[in-house]
Amino acid sequence: MRPSRRDLIASFLSVAAANAACRRPTKAPLPGELVDSVVQFGHQLRGGPTLPLSTSPRPIDVLIVGAGAAGLSAAWRLRGAGVDALAVCELDADAGGTARAGHNAVTAFPWGAHYLPAPLTPRGPVPRLLRELGVMHDDGSFAEEALIHEPEERLYYRGTWYEGLYLRAGASADDLAQLARFEEQMAAFADARDAKGRRAFTVPVAACSDDAEWAQLDRLSMAEWLANEGYTSPRLTWLVDYGCRDDYGATAAGTSAWAAIWYFAARHGNAGFLSWPEGNGRLIAQLKKSVEAQQLQTGLLVHTLSRRDDGRWLAHAVDAKRAPHGLLAKTVVLACPRFIAARLLGEPSLASAFRYSPWVVANLSLKSAPKSRGFPLAWDNVLHHSKSLGYVVATHQRPRASQAGPTVFTWYYPLAGDDPKAERERLLSATRDDWEAVVRADLWPAHAGLDDVAERLDVMRWGHAMVRPYPGFIWGEARRAASQSLHGSLHFAHSDLGGLALFEEANHHGVRAAEAALGSLGRTFDSWLDS
Length: 531
What we know:
Layout: H1 5-12, H2 15-23, H3 38-42, E1 58-65, H4 69-80, E2 86-90, E3 101-103, E4 108-110, E5 116-117, H5 125-133, E6 153-157, E7 160-163, H6 173-191, H7 212-215, H8 222-228, H9 234-248, H10 257-265, E8 273-274, H11 281-288, E9 296-298, E10 300-307, E11 313-319, E12 324-334, H12 338-345, E13 356-366, E14 380-383, E15 390-393, E16 407-414, H13 420-429, H14 432-443, H15 450-453, E17 454-467, H16 477-481, E18 490-492, H17 503-520
Parallel strand pairs: 1-2, 1-12, 2-9, 6-14, 12-18
Antiparallel strand pairs: 3-4, 5-8, 6-7, 10-11, 11-12, 13-16, 13-17, 14-15, 15-16
Helix pairs in contact: 1-2, 1-14, 4-11, 4-17, 6-10, 8-10, 9-10
């Protein structure tokens, strides 16, 4: 039986939210759609009817499976080295993975990742990409138009919006003392280095110290670490839990203490955050510029990958019409989530340690920003009481004088329960209209007159949005071994290899795998990983 509207809202938000929603008059549904129709296409990998095989595979030098941030970063690096005979295959109709973007007549908007912390160093592939984009200057400064404009953040609590994400209004002396002590500890973690000079917490994870002093933090959950350190302030524990849900799609109880500390310490003292109306879709567009149209094939499901006696890799794929395609590659970069790589290679054990958080992203088109009480509309707008993460405003980066008028709110909801499989089932069982009911129940109380300005709601469901850094995973052997190449010619690249679903990790592993592929081809090159 389908759950009632009240039960649905109570399940995804709270009983209080459900009761409040049911007391309001029911409004006519907004137009909109589910934009993740590729889900069913992708599930063909799980079995079902035998997929057709190609009888005339096309020979190439490099095959890249997956055109998310990692796959496009690999292609960007390979093209930078002059490799032309490559193919990038992507299941979705659009490249970009969870960093992809959409647009309407008003603005572009993100369908996933929506910002990038400004790098702390001018070295490495991310700064190189930002210089190409014209966002990072040679002196290490950043273009003002890309740095997030003020006001950056606000928090809704008991009928009023407040500046920032820590609720200072009504905070006790003990609350503020615990916050100060926590910030001092995070600053100390940010400064910590091992005997080799490696930072304890930095970007990417591969550059972090693996000394036991720091790695042992991975054995605890962040909730356990907070309790052990005597942090009991509800305001602080809420902030930390929010950070875990925001970056990892898991609660503090389900997140490694090392990963949660990384969230607060690795970017300490950075120059700010970079964003665009389309979020990290701007970075995806820059990476795509390096790939020629015929080299990127979207709407293509690679379903079989095997190594031939001559050492080359044979890949079979089908398009949306089930027409077969074949590729014969000298070397392969698997820039797909670990569970997809495991299925392609017929090795389930490759993915046994990897868990993924489901997410929902909804874009709400508005005639104008609705009214709200207290601190004014910011880029990031968070609801203290909610299981959602609130929303970002796609038009926030426009000049202040042109921000009035139509806009888009991008709403984020991580399904952060302890059982990711059960959460995925819950995600996919909810319809687009179900998600509209949840979004309405979440946002309407904080925005007077939202019904009068709402025009459309489109919904994206991400079944495996981000890898979960649960306790024991980051410094466990399975993750650390996952980047190792197979047979000297098959290389792995994805953000999940770093254990953190971040653009910097995807970019790092894409470039690293591409340079391993260059080695497989016998090419000489100067590494981009630290230059």
